[in-house]
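sanity check this fold:
=====
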Amino acid sequence: MGNAMIGGRSWIGLASVAALLLLWFGVTATGLVSAGRFPSPADFWLSLTQISLRGYAGGGLLAHALQSVKLVVMGFLVAIATGVPLGLWMGWDRRAEAAINPVFLIIRPIPPLAWIPLAILWLGLGDGAKIMVIWFAAFVPSVINAYAGVRNIDRPIIEAAQMLGTPRWRMITEIIAPAAAPMIFTGLRLSLQASWTTLVAAELVGALAGIGFVLNMAQQDIYPGMILVGMVTVGVLGWATTAALSLAERRALAWNVAGRD
């Protein structure tokens, strides 16, 4: 039954993509939208061929994509390495929450892009500034969901472990973290999406490569076809990394995924 439902959802998804492509062909072929405002499939293909074979904005599509993936992965990894432990700590220790949460509540509403001027001032125009901006975008969801995961654990489970004299470190690694893992992975998905959303804006400033740099150059060149290539590339890369994270979740939390299916 579960496999049939998954197969049905896949066909519905493919049908939606096909309908979108047909709409694109129809709108551009009938001239409802001019090629100067939105590229036709032929314009998209020519732009894709150009950046893939001859290059654009100082590099080929693969080189730009690898640069963007590198920035996203580094910012994402730093975010989960700092955000998840902080969220677990705040959720477990009332004193830590009392000390850290007021500061977190002040920082949390600040848009990630607002950190760009400080990131450039502190780290220059290199990759470090871009990673910092991506880190902040991914940091907030990872903290919130790790914190919520701990707070959603049934208290009797924790109390029973305490009554048995479970050491603090084993309590965290063998009870708290596994029980909060589903919420943590939810936060990781949100963090990854935030990383890709922030990447393009981070690469608009001082970048010499990357998909955001391609989009910026295409906008200056008034090149709609290349703009769409950049947008689609970000979408494909975001989908691929999210799929990889989902696979990791299914393997790490097979018991939870099986229960949902």
